[in-house]
Amino acid sequence: MRIIKRIGKFLGCSFLILLLVGALVLGFYFIKWNSISKNNLALLDKPAKELISKGFTYRDLNKNGKLDIYEDKREPVESRIDDLISQMQLDEKAGLLFITMIAMNPDGGISDVPTFKDPLTFAFDANSTYVAAKKMNHFNILQSPSDPLVLIKWNNNIQKLAERTRLGIPVTIASDPRHGVRDNPGAGIESTLFSEWPSSLGLAATRDSSLVADFGRIVNQEYRSVGIRLALGPVADLATEPRWGRISDTFGEDATLSAKMTAAYVNGMQGDSLNNKSVACMTKHFTGGGPQKDGWDAHFANGKEQVYPGNNFEYHLIPFEAAMKSNTAQIMTYYGIPVGQTSEEVAFGFNKDIITGLLRTKYGYDGVVCSDWGIVSDMLVKPASDWGMEGATPKEKVAKILDAGSDMFGGEALPELVIELVNEGKIKEERLDISVRRILRDKFDLGLFDEPYLSESDADILRNELFLSKGAEAQRRSLTLLKNENSTLPLAKSSKVYLQGFNEELKLSAGTFVDNPEDADFIILKLNTPFEPSNGSILERFFKQGRLDFPQRKKEDLLKLIKTKPTITVLTIDRPPVAPDINRASSAVIADFFSSEEIILKMIFGEFRPSGKLPLEIPSSMQAVEEQLEDVPYDSKNPMYPFGHGLSY
What residues contact residue 42 under an 8 Å CB cut-off, 6+ apart? Predict the structure, then answer.
């Protein structure tokens, strides 16, 4: 008993010591964070004043008390750019070339000192470090507060911070997609603020480019209402390799269809030309990230090779050509090495043949080119994706990217390396000016220099009935009926159904829900495409890639259930599943591209007729998948369902 007491006392003392040490360490860091914030804010000037010159009201961004050309919205954009570049110092030019992730406080305040209310605030530098110390003004937001006023408040706070820099260059806020796939870490962000749509695959299944243009126009308004002015999309890659983990972001495997949808998206988001009502598009990932060797994604080392066994490199350019014809403001390159396609085996972001030779020279593209996130330095969620440059220093990689012809560094905050390269004579400042001009042009065209602030009333547009109904329409039209044996569907509204794979709180608009399959007239089974879990980096563990077939034990359990009663199987497709046995055993099969469960059930019970057409083929076996050529569309032997398949009632 005495020993037990001693052990308890020892453990109690140890816990208190650990608690004390933890408190001291945390206290040290909070003092440090506050000190960093104070020093950063000391670098800033007062906010810009509104002044009047000969009856014209302007914002005195450089605080010199007079109207400069770049402050005058009546002047041509190129003249404003010339004036601003002439006033910019080297560190301001370098900061302009970087875009990275940033945090905000849960109340919309500047995130300078982390808060336990949102652990993401611990993951990034202070807002003032990026803006005041590093002179950066492009940021990718990851958080998704449920209250739009939080985003509006943060937009105004970060813009006010930027206004206090020497020249008052405004911030461009960017975001990954927030409207489609709900479970897509690393590629999309779940949000409750906006209208709900199917995935890009689902939009392609509608075959309606005017609907996609409507989607772009609605996303534009919703983004602008909270300050997002740069969309990290559309994805113009082609889903020619069915194992690849980014397929749900694409418009499928057909280049003509993808080109049509990509152009519609860009036109909807930007309008006829980039202006103060636009959201700029960063079309990705040039020259097409789909033909991944064995389907492994190029974020990670095992997927660094993009291969073209079908000699089909140019096919993957077709959607990007459509985006450029639609004047996409920006283009992002991907991570992979285009094996055998260029004079050196380096990834797209480092590849001069791709950026300067193909994009700049052949296509004459003069918009902003940005590398994908984290090809120079390691990120918290993954090591640097520096394929072909693994042995180089970060400074050497930065020099290589600039020499290749790129303008911006995605997911990086290293302007000091650009400054060093210029001071060492390895990069000319005139080279920076070329990229600075392209980047500033977008900021001026978007009207950010003239009015970067929002009002609370801007949020009134969100969740309106028109936007919600249009999203619901797209979900309905994306649903694709693959099989309907003996006219199983639509079900009679009196049918008793057993649901598996659905939300337990789901309410049926028709039919009766039963707890046991034996009591049902029909089983409705919802399945996600299988994948191979990874033990790699944090981000890699979230990626759904690898095999497409169900493990044997799982498949046996599913077939046992299906054989209990006539079954309607709903396949939620982020990648095409290989499920021939399940398909044969099911009475009806539906391809779902992330429509709501209520909408799926309404279709099953005949409240509307299915009209979707597959934007990719569904293979019949893993052998067929493995024998496909990564760069060639719809070349699977005897597919379970071909590209374009779709039934109706």
Answer: none
Catalytic residues: 372
CA quadruple 8, 12, 18, 19: dihedral, nearest 10: 150
Provide the CA 3 distance to its chain's centre, in angstroms: 58
CA 497 – CA 313 distance, rounded (Å): 48
C-alpha distance across the termini of the chain, in Å: 77
56 sits in which H/E element: strand 56-59
The whole-angstrom separation of Cα 308 and Cα 448 is: 42
* pLDDT value, residue 517: 95
Alpha-carbon distances of 57 from 33, 60, 160, 447, 621, rounded to whole Å: 39, 9, 18, 15, 67
CA torsion angle 550 554 557 561 (round to 10): -50
Quote the tokens at residue 633: 């569309």
Concatenated DSSP letters of 377-429: S--SSS----TT-TTS-HHHHHHHHHHHT--BEET---HHHHHHHHHTTSS-H
Q: What SS3 class is residue 236?
A: coil
SS3 147: coil
User: Is the model's pLDDT at 441 over the cut of 60?
Assistant: yes
Alpha-carbon gap, residue 186 to 176, rounded angstroms: 9
Alpha-carbon distance 290 to 245, whole Å? 9
- How far apart are alpha carbons 335 and 285 in whole angstroms? 8
Write down the pTM of the prediction.
0.94
What's the DSSP call for residue 317? G
Q: Is the dihedral of CA 604, 622, 182, 321 positive or negative?
A: negative
DSSP secondary structure letters along 499-529: EESS-TT---SSSEE-SSGGG-SEEEEEEEP
Mean pLDDT of the chain: 94
Beta bridge partners of 332: 284, 370
Going by C-alpha positions, the residue among 17, 58, 27 that lies closest to residue 451 is 58
Q: Which DSSP helix (H) or strand (E) runs through 634?
A: none
The whole-angstrom separation of Cα 65 and Cα 252 is: 55
Q: Are 438 and 405 in contact (CB under 8 A)?
A: no
Instruction: Please work out, in degrees rounded to the nearest 5, the angle formed at the alpha carbon of residue 97 by the alpha carbons of 95 and 100.
Output: 85
Q: 26-30, 167-171, 267-271, 347-351: which has the minimum mean pLDDT?
A: 26-30
Cα–Cα dist 14/155, whole Å: 45
d(CA 277, CA 635): 42
Q: What is the DSSP string of 112-138?
A: SS-BTTBGGGGSS--HHIIIIIS---E
* Partner residues linked to 549 by β-bridges: 578
Q: How far is CA 633 from the centre of its chain?
A: 24
User: Which CB contacts under 8 angstroms, 24+ apart, belong to 619-626?
Assistant: 619/242, 619/548, 619/576, 619/578, 620/578, 620/580, 621/549, 621/578, 621/580, 622/547, 622/548, 622/549, 622/578, 625/242, 625/243, 625/548, 625/578
Return d(Cα 580, Cα 556) in angstroms, integer: 13
Is residue 345 predicted with pLDDT exceeding 80?
A: yes
For 244, phi then psi, to 5°, come to -60, 140
Taking each helix axis from N to C end, the angle separating 429-445 and 394-404, rounded to the nearest 10 degrees, works out to: 70
DSSP state of 336: S
What whole-number distance in Å separates Cα of residue 255 and Cα of residue 616?
11
Answer whether residue 604 shows pLDDT above 80: yes
Under 8 Å between Cβ of 539 and 299: yes
